[in-house]
UniProtKB/TrEMBL annotation:
GO terms for cellular component: Sec62/Sec63 complex. It comes from Punica granatum (Pomegranate). This is DnaJ protein ERDJ2A-like. The chain crosses the membrane at residues 12-32, 66-88, 192-213. The lineage of its organism: Eukaryota, Viridiplantae, Streptophyta, Embryophyta, Tracheophyta. The gene is LOC116202441. Residues 623-651 have a biased composition (Acidic residues).
Length: 680
């Protein structure tokens, strides 16, 4: 009985241990994530961003952000753990070691006369004839008498000195840390113990496995439904225009689950009238087009109208019921657009090439959603291929302001950025009628806008010339600079209700064939991860080229310094195409800013593979020695895939000087321009 009571007392310790094993690591992980999020709070300080409220942490917003199901469960479990610790510390049933000298109130090694004297003194206090209290009787029999016997009886004292107990050697007992009622297998307690074992050992793991498998079978690692990826893959076309990307985007399975209530009909009809000009309806057959639009799946209609409400900045006209769906649609948008971009870049031919035109269209749609700028604003006006869209992302700018400054021959966004502070302040104050506070807001946003520099190299390691079928290495450094000196920062997006990191896509493409040869996502927020990735890539590259340890460490140090200075390494491989001269374009497109994309021209010459299987170094050398340098061919007029809204004009792009030697082709583009052109 005593042993069972002892093991029953251990039950809280058992529960505390089981709870602490997963809870402590999970809590540490949550705290680390929260700490990392705090380092990513560098955002725009203009009045519009501050007025949006998404960066303002009021007490109610902090409580609402904290009061999630996982956080409340975590707090509850910690409260239970604290209670268990307190209970274990103060529980009455404690495991005590038998100490006869301590029981009699003596020091170890006391004489026999002192032992007898202490026993007589305690007998007067606890003996049943002197004290009728039952507890006193139990204490006298169980402790005082045994302690006296252990110290006076020769055999008992010998057992105590040898084994630590007057009764001799004690056996070691193992117990189950469960409550006593579960250990009584007679009657109903046996069934309870059986249910306990079945529930903990069988049902609980089974339920967790079923939940995990059902979720993993429905969602990808990026929390996007598999059905969405299937739909995007099959609806993606090589000639998909940017205006048609929206039709593919809204067909995500996540948007199909948005509820369509009867009360939404009237607000959606009012919203339709507000955004009708952006829906690409044929005005000649407007009635038929409207009827066709409303015959679509109700969830798709609702999703497209809510996205158009974001693009046209008409969210203030939404009813309270639609406002929740509106935020849900925008919250899912970046994740779905990233997967849509991947579906545009997924290999579609034998060479493993993706498609450029739909990829650019996805990036344009992402930019417009984040900045709340209508797609129609990207139509070419004057000398700007981006239209007035880059201007509209600036605070206090509208179409009327753009027309006013255009009269002063500021027709492109890059011309506005290239002006000095005084010139820009004078233009905005005298021509646009801005106040000093509004001018300051514009300057803060322009300081946050990134400028990109791209240095790209295509080479085959240690070989002369690039031959068809070779594995070509793309090595590029993308450098980001801002006027305010920051590298990683959140973009200016006052109309987007959530915090959004800016991402860039590096696309090495051939515009004439609409093929993307190589692509990679680039992010400037996590410097530590970028340093780790760059160091590992440089080490592998140097080891593959046979470099020694000193050269490798020096290259790694240089790469780390570049990353800390605001550069990111882009490294990958692609198979060389058939023999010929290829005019490639390195696109670096942003998913958040309009007018900050970068485009660099790169010419690659692919040689024919020789019959003997050699690298054809002589052929490459002969081609170079004809004129002493590689002959530069004129770039043919290429179809511009950068925007559907651009007019069919010949691109006036400067041809960069290339070096084609030892299988290495390099190009460098500096300065970020809205049109994506290069500066010599």
């Amino acid at each position: 009985m005593a042993a069972s009571e002892e093991t029953s007392a251990l039950f809280p310790i058992f529960i505390l241990t089981i709870m602490a094993l997963p809870l402590v690591p999970y809590t540490i992980m949550k705290l680390c994530r929260a700490a990392s999020k705090k380092t990513k709070t560098i955002h725009c300080q203009c009045s519009e961003c501050l007025r949006s409220g998404k960066y303002h942490k009021s007490i109610f917003k902090r409580i609402s952000n904290f009061s999630t199901c996982s956080n409340l469960t975590l707090v509850l479990l910690w409260v239970v753990m604290i209670f268990l610790v307190y209970y274990i510390k103060n529980m009455s049933s404690e495991i005590q070691v038998f100490e006869p000298f301590s029981i009699l109130g003596l020091e170890p090694g006391a004489s026999e006369s002192e032992i007898k004297k202490a026993y007589r003194r305690l007998s007067i206090q606890y003996h049943p004839d002197k004290n009728p209290d039952p507890e006193a009787h139990t204490y006298f029999v169980e402790f005082i008498s045994k302690a006296y016997q252990a110290l006076t009886d020769p055999i008992s004292r010998e057992n105590f000195e040898k084994y630590g107990h007057p009764d001799g050697k004690q056996g070691f007992q193992m117990g189950i840390a469960l409550p006593q009622f579960l250990l009584d297998i007679d009657g109903a307690s046996g069934g309870i113990l059986l249910l306990w074992i079945v529930g903990v050992c069988i049902l609980l793991p089974l339920v967790i496995a079923v939940i995990y498998l059902s979720r993993s079978s429905k969602y990808t690692g990026n929390y996007v439904m598999h059905h969405t990826l299937y739909t995007y893959y099959h609806l993606m076309k090589p000639s998909l225009a940017p205006s048609k990307v929206m039709e593919v985007f809204i067909k995500a399975a996540e948007y199909g689950e948005i509820p369509v209530r009867r009360t939404d009909t009237e607000p959606l009809q009012k919203l339709f009238l507000l955004v009708r000009s952006e829906l690409n309806l044929d005005l000649k057959n407007i009635k038929q087009e409207q009827a066709k639009f409303w015959k679509q799946h109700p969830a798709m209609v609702k999703t497209e109208l809510l996205i158009q409400a974001q693009l046209t900045r008409e969210s203030a006209a939404l009813s309270p019921g639609l406002l929740g769906d509106f935020k849900h649609v925008l919250e899912l948008a970046p994740r779905l657009l990233e997967e849509l971009m991947k579906m545009a870049l997924v290999p579609r031919n034998a060479q493993g090439h993706g498609w450029l035109r739909p990829a650019v269209g996805v990036a344009e749609l992402s930019q417009c959603i984040i900045q709340a700028v209508p797609l129609s604003a990207r139509k070419t006006i004057g000398g700007s291929t981006e239209g007035i869209a880059p201007f509209l992302q600036l605070p206090h700018f509208n179409e009327a302001v753009v027309k006013k400054i255009a009269r002063k021959k500021v027709r492109t966004f890059q011309e506005l950025r290239d002006m000095t502070l005084d010139e820009r302040a004078e233009l905005l104050t005298l021509v646009a009628g801005f106040s000093s506070t509004e001018v300051q807001d514009v300057e803060r946003v322009l300081e946050m806008m990134p400028s990109l520099t791209v240095e790209v190299t295509c080479e085959t390691g240690g070989e002369e010339g690039i031959q068809e079928g070779d594995l070509v290495t793309v090595h590029a450094w993308v450098t980001l600079e801002r006027t305010n000196g920051l590298v990683g920062a959140l973009p200016h997006a006052p109309y987007y209700p959530f915090q959004k990191e800016e991402n860039f896509w590096f696309l090495l493409a051939e515009p004439t064939s609409n093929n993307v040869w190589f692509s990679q996502k680039v992010n400037f927020m996590d410097e530590a991860a970028a340093i780790t990735a760059a160091s590992k890539a440089i080490e592998e590259t140097m080891e593959g080229s046979g470099a020694d340890v000193k050269e490798t460490s020096r290259a790694v140090r240089e790469a780390v310094e570049k990353v800390r200075a605001g550069s990111r390494l882009v490294l990958g491989k692609f198979l060389a195409p058939p023999e010929g001269n290829y005019s490639l374009v390195c696109h670096c497109v942003c998913d958040s800013w309009i007018g900050c994309d970068k485009k660099v021209n790169l010419k690659v010459k692919v040689l024919k593979r020789t019959r003997a299987g050699t690298r054809g170094g002589a052929a490459a050398e002969e081609a170079v020695m004809d004129d002493g340098i590689e002959e530069e061919e004129e770039i043919e007029e290429e179809e511009d895939y950068e925007s559907e809204y651009s007019e069919d004009e010949a691109d006036k792009l400067d041809t960069k000087k290339k070096s084609v030697a030892n299988g290495k082709v390099t190009a460098k583009g500096s300065s970020s321009e809205g049109s994506g052109s290069d500066e010599e």
